[in-house]
User: Which sequence fits this backbone?
């Protein structure tokens, strides 16, 4: 009885059964919806933070009495992947902004009241950018395994950028309602 009350107070409802993975296959039809778009729940972000901080703190403890790993190939491969992904997102973003500029004008590239412009390809690219922030958490894991110093700003930056990009998607969608 006591434990069920504690569990009820501290539990965070999180339902992934509503996630619609078909949104990931068609950028033209992409529409950000918290609880429907995969990984869009705020609970997922909080869970990622808890997992991230726990893993990094545990790795730093684990590595205290060990020699650093040499992860040059892993680090290079991870950075190459992120560079290629960033270049693709940049290229698509420029292309879609140029397309919007051609069809809607300069004003619509920076500020819009048109609900339809908050969905589709540009929002999809922003969503992929959001997902890439979770992959970037591996940077800290690599640093911990190499026994490199990890300052608070590094932890904070990786955690807060996820929330920041989530808010771009959510706030843009909120203003369209």
Assistant:
């Amino acid at each position: 009885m006591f434990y069920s009350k504690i569990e009820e107070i501290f539990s965070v409802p999180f339902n992934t059964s509503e996630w619609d993975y078909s949104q990931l296959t068609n950028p033209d039809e992409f529409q950000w919806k918290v609880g429907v778009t995969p990984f869009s729940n705020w609970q997922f972000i909080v869970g990622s933070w808890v997992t991230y901080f726990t893993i990094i703190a545990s790795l730093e403890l684990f590595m205290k009495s060990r020699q650093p790993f040499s992860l040059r190939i892993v680090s290079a491969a991870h950075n190459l992947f992120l560079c290629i992904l960033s270049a693709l997102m940049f290229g698509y973003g420029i292309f879609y902004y140029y397309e919007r500029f051609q069809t809607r004008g300069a004003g619509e590239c920076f500020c819009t009241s048109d609900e339809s412009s908050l969905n589709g390809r540009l929002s999809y690219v922003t969503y992929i950018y959001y997902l890439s922030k979770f992959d970037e958490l591996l940077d800290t894991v690599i640093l911990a395994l190499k026994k490199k110093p990890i300052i608070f700003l590094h932890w904070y930056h990786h955690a807060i950028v996820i929330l920041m990009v989530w808010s771009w998607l959510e706030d843009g969608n909120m203003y369209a309602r």
